[in-house]
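Predict the structure of PEP/pyruvate-binding domain-containing protein.
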Amino acid sequence: MDLRDKASTGMAGFDQAIDKLRLGDNVVWQVDSVADFKKVVDPYVEQSKRDNRKLVYVRFGSHEPLLGDSPSVKIVEIDARRGFESFATAVHSLIEQEGRKTFYVFDCLTDLLKYWHSDLMIGNFFNVSCPFLYELDTVAYFAIIRNAHTYSTVARIRETTQVLLDLYQVNGHFYIHPLKAQNRYSPTMFFPHLIRDQEAVCITASAESAELFSRIHRGGERLDYWDTLFQQAREALADTPERQEETKRLLMSMLIGHDRESRMFKLCDRYFTLEDILAIGSRVVGSGLIGGKSVGLLLARKILEREGEGRFSPYLEPHDSYYLGADVYYTYIVQNGWWKLRVKQKTEEGYFRYAPELKEKLLRGKFPENIREKFVQMLEHFGQSPIIVRSSSLLEDNFGNAFAGKYESVFCVNQGTPEERYEAFEQAVRIVYASSMNEDALQYRMNRGLFDRDEQMAILVQRVSGDHYRELFFPHLAGIGNSSNLYVWDRQMDMDAGMLRLVFGLGTRAVDRTVGDYVRIVSLDHPSRLPPMMAEDFRKYSQHDVDVLSLRDNALTSRGLDDVMSLDIKADKELFASADYERMNRLRELGRSGRSVPYLLDFQKLLKHSEFPELMREMLALLSQVYEYPVDIEFTANFTADHRFKVNLLQCRPLQTRGLGKPVEIPQLTDRRDCFFSAKGNFMGGNVRLPIDYVVYVRPQAYLERSEQGKYAVARQIGILNAKLKGRGAMLVGPGRWGTTTPSLGVPVHFSEICHMAVICETASSESGMMPELSYGSHFFQDLVETGIFYAAIFDGQPDVVFNPEYVLGKENVLASISPQSEPFADVIHVAETPGMEIFSDIVTQTLLCR
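Done. Here is the predicted structure for PEP/pyruvate-binding domain-containing protein.
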C-alpha cells in the first residue's frame, strides 16, 4: 500500500501495532468516559496538524469540548435536538462540502441518547454516515461509552466501521485492545497493548491478559435506552408528584413532540398523567414519536373523559390502538440502503425529481427482524378483527397543518392464514410509508413552507369499528364532525352549534367526494333541517351505496343500499332509512317490483328521535372549548336493537378556518345582466370582498365533447395556469366537481393544480349533467380552507340564482398570452382579464355576488 494512503494515530508504537490507519477508516473507540477518549484524540489531532491535514471537529454533545479553538481546526456545531433526519442530513452535507481526505473528530455518540432516546437511531446514524466518510477517503474518530448501548447497536457499529478499539484505564495505565482492523493483520495485532507515551507494549502472556481483563467491568445485555427510560418511569410512579411530572414530560418529549412550548404539548401536559403516557408507550412498536393523528385521538378521548363529568363515558367505544413509532420509518429507509437517495430527495432540486424513485423503493423494502416480531405480536392481539393502518406523520393534524387526505390509510380485512394476514399488514405499512412521497403531499409541504421540516411517518393501527353482518363488516354510521358550521344556508342557523357529514357504513364516503353519491349534511342546531334543494332532488342527492369490508373477498368494497338493508343489521333500520314508496311505485309500474320495499337513506328518525345529534353537538362543543379553537373529528357509531349506541372517536384535529371575517356591504343589483353571477347561499369562505383580476372559465359543452384523455389534458392545462396566475387574483369556474377522479363529473385536477386560485366556482351544467357537490367537511374542503380559497357552487336555473357566462366570455381570451403552450385548448379554456371585478359574500344574509 502507498504510504500516502496511510495516516498516523499520533502514537508511534500503536501505529506499528496496527500498521497505521488507512484513508477511509472510521475509527470507533469504546471508552469509559469522554475524558479517556480525549487521551487518544489529542495525539491524533496534533499529528494531523503536523501532516497538514484538513481537520474538522463536529460538535453536538453536552460534554466538555474535545478540542479548543485553533486556526488549524474547523469546528462545526450541529444541533442534535432537531432530530435524527435534520442531524444526519446536516452531517451528510458537511461531509460532502468538506470533500475528500478530510480528517474528523466527532463528539461522543452516546450523547445522542439524550436527544433521541434510542440506541436504534444511533446505529442508524452511524450506518448512513460511515460509508460516506469511507467513500471520500476521510479518517474519522468516534467514541461510544462502554456498556451504555445494546449488543445489537454495538454489533451494527462493528459491522459498519473499519476500526473498532477498546480503550481501558486500569491502575492508572491505558490499554488499547483492537477488536477490528479492516484489511490488516499481524500475529499480535488483536492483543491488548499497554500505552506508554509513544510506546505500545503488546500483552501476550496469558497471566497478564487474564489479570487485565478480570479488572475490566463488562455489563450484561442491555435494554435499548428507550426501554430503560420507560422502565425507570414505571419506578417513578412510587415517587413524589414533582418527580412524576418531570418523568411524564420526558416521556412526552419522546412520544408526543419535542417542543414543550407548542399548544398540543401543553394540552397533553394538562390532561395526561404519567400512567396515561406509560400506557401509550406500552403500545408503541419500535421507538419514536407517535405522530399528530395518534396524539389528537388520544387527547380528545382524555378531554371527554376528564371534562365530560361522566356525560360521554357510557357512549364511548373503548379503543385499543397501536402506534408504529416514527423511528421505524427511518430504520426501514436506512437498513434497506436508501438513505443517500432520501438525502438527495430532501434537496430543493431533488424534492420532486427523486420522489417517484424513493416511493417505488418504499413499496418493496424489508423490515428488520426485531420489528417483524413486534408486528406479529401486535397482529396476535387483534386476531381476525379488521384493522386500519393510518398515517400519523409528525406534522399531521396539528394547529395550522391538517394534511387532510394527503397520506394513505389502508384497510386490512385481516382474513386468511396468519402468514397471509401478516403479509397484508406489512404491505399496508409500506403503502402508508410510500404515500409520504405522493405528489400532493410534497406540494402541500412546499406550499406551506414545510419543505425542509422533518416529516417522519409514524403509523396508527386501529381496530375497525363495526360488526359482522353475514359476510360483510361495517359500522352503522360514520362521518366527520365540525364544531363550527361555516356552511350555513339560513340566517337563523347557529354556526357555533356545529355540523356533521354523515354516511351509513364505513366513513370513506364522508371524507372524500364520491362519484354519483352524496352524504347527509347535518346542522346540529336543527338536525332534521335539509340543505337547500328541490324536494324532488332529495333522492338524487342522497347516499345510494354503502362502503363495507367483504370478509369473503378480504377487501374494501361497496354494496347497493338495498342489498345492505336486506341484511339483519342488528338495529332498527328506520333510524337510518325510510321506505321509498315513490320508487317502489315506479318500479311496480315498470314491472320490476321486488318482495322488499326499497329504502331511502334520510336518517330522519336518528336525527329527530334519538340522543345522537345532541351528544355529538355537546362533544364537539366541549372539545372546541378546551382547544380554544374549532375542531374537526372523525367518528363511527354502532346501535343496538333497543336504540342504545356507542360512538368511536377516531380522530380529532384543529379545524383550519379563517373565521367569518368582517361584515361586507353587498351592492344592490338593479339589472340581472349586470353581474357574472349572484345567488343565495351555497358558498364557503366567510364574509369576503375580493378583487378578481382574471377569470379562468371552462366551457361546459366544449369540455364535454373532449375524449376522456382530452379531459385529463384540460386538467393539466389548468395546473399550468394555476402556476402562471399565482398571486394574481384569479377565479376558476367550471362545470361539475373540481378535483373529481371521474372526468364525466367535472375536471379531474389535483389540488396542487388549483391551489393558487383565489376563488373556485363549480357550476351546474344542464347540457352535460354535471353538478357541483357541496363538500363541506371533506378533505377537499380542508384544502380549500387551509389555502384560503373562497368556494361557491352556482346552480343555474334555481330561484335566486343569476348566472351570465357571457359577462366573461364576451371578453378577449388571453389564454395564449399567459401560457403559449395552452393555445390548442382555447376552445375549452377561456381566460379573461377582469380589472375592477369583485366578489362579495355575506354570511348573515347568505348573499353572494360577483360583478
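The CA atoms of residues 145 and 297 lie 39 Å apart.
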